Amino acid sequence: MKSQKMMIAANDPSLKSWVAYDETSDFPIQNLPFGVGARRGESPRVLSAIGDYGVDLAALCELGLLRVEGLDEGVFSQQKLNAFISAGPAHWSSVRARLSQILNADDSLGARKHKDRFLIPMAELELILPVEIGDYTDFYSSKEHATNVGSMFRDPDNALLPNWKHLPVGYHGRASSIVVSGTPLRRPLGQQKPADAEVPVFGPSKLLDFELEMAFIVGVENELGSRVKVSDAESHIFGLALFNDWSARDIQSWEYVPLGPFLAKNFASTMSPWIVTLEALEPFRVAGPVQDPAPLPYLQTLGSHSFDIDLEAWIETESGVMQRLCASNFKYMYWSMAQQLAHHTVNGCNMKVGDVCASGTISGPTPDSYGSMLEISWRGTKPVSLPDGSTRKFIEDGDSIVLQASAEANGVRIGFGEARGKILPATID
């Protein structure tokens, strides 16, 4: 009950902070996400964010302002969030509630006079990948996306494979190549088989794509041989981040039979540096799509297990031309995070703190909400026109893809920052 009361207080839309920010900020006092970073040249440590500032949690501890019963303050001096996450949901909530007090407009704790000790302007921060990721799983949980892809490559009248409405389809990806927003990426090399060729060729991918996704970070482990029940699944999730699972469509179409994606996916994925807690997203909870047929009992849920989060993908060319490519929403996901985690562990698979599970491309019902270039350009048949007169079927060298997300209700806007990646030319020896 105490945790629930703290959550309600920290989410109060009437809360104001003594830190100034405008209504368009991703990081109001009702958000307080978690990340890792520091001023350039200094050792990274655990941060939160408010307005245009990072909040140094270790510095708050040194000032005696951030003390939570039973929590080792040393977790905030670590270079990843894993130690703090491992402290468990009660401590996540307590820290967020304490931060809300520290930053509250009434300044009842007297923190404002010490602001130069713990507030760091975002422009001076170097943010790093916030968690040590042991394993990464990518799902395929947007019905609209799966239908579009099935229509292109199989049968428009029978686009979904027989299993799709019965389980959250997923595959294991490569954790080592997940990078933080702002990290440039090299165009991947690989085998491709052009439609007019009898044998495969080798070279840079010509059909490089983005995928508009979100990812949840596992916060509570389950033992090998045990499973996470769908009713308990959300209590095992620390929070959400933006995620771009870059894809080389030409490499993928040649290699994916019979075992699925390999080199087309494992060269890079981009994750935002800030993790927004499920607690902060509670006011934006909504029901997901109606599932028909009803899933098997172990996947059946009660209540609302999705969130109304607006998503956008933008392209920025090397010359600075910028245009929105699509606008989607997390609520379109057919399979919820709770169902994904329950299915992932139903066979006894053990999840670890810091593991990342991505949603798969989140597409909506209309062409302007399609979450990949594959769909937006409809396999290259409908090029996208940019303001400078150039066009794009897929992503070219020098292009940057920028993902953004935010949820708004009752005058409060909770944002995620951005997940940005620029494509560099392939290196061919």
Key structural traits:
globular, about 425 residues, 5-stranded antiparallel beta sheet, 2 domains, alpha+beta
Number of domains: 2
Q: Could you name the CATH homologous superfamily of the largest domain?
A: Fumarylacetoacetase-like, C-terminal domain
CATH architecture verdict of the largest domain: Alpha-Beta Complex
| Rg (C-alpha, Å) | 22 Å
Q: How is the main sheet built? A: 8 strands, mixed
CATH class of the largest domain: Alpha Beta
In whole angstroms, the N-to-C terminal distance is: 62 Å
Percent of residues in helices? 10-25%
Shape: globular
User: How many runs of DSSP E, i.e. beta strands?
Assistant: 26
Low-confidence stretches: none
Structural class based on helices, strands and sheet pairing: alpha+beta
Average pLDDT works out at 96
CATH topology of the largest domain: Fumarylacetoacetate hydrolase, domain 2
Give the count of helical stretches: 10
Explain the layout of strands and helices.
Elements: H1 2-11, E1 34-39, E2 45-50, E3 53-56, H2 57-62, H3 82-86, H4 89-103, H5 115-118, E4 119-121, E5 125-128, E6 136-139, H6 143-153, E7 170-172, E8 178-180, E9 185-186, E10 189-192, E11 201-204, E12 208-209, E13 212-218, E14 237-244, E15 247-248, H7 249-255, E16 269-271, E17 276-277, H8 278-281, E18 285-286, E19 306-307, E20 310-316, E21 322-329, H9 337-345, E22 356-358, H10 373-376, E23 384-385, E24 391-392, E25 400-409, E26 412-424
Structure description:
The structure is a single chain. The chain is α+β, with helices and mostly antiparallel strands and 429 residues long. The chain folds into 2 domains: 2-128, SH3 type barrels, CATH 2.30.30; 136-424, Fumarylacetoacetase-like, C-terminal domain (Fumarylacetoacetate hydrolase, domain 2), CATH 3.90.850.10. The chain has 10 helices and 26 strands. β10 and β11 (201-204) form a beta hairpin. α1 crosses α4. The N and C termini lie far apart (62 Å).
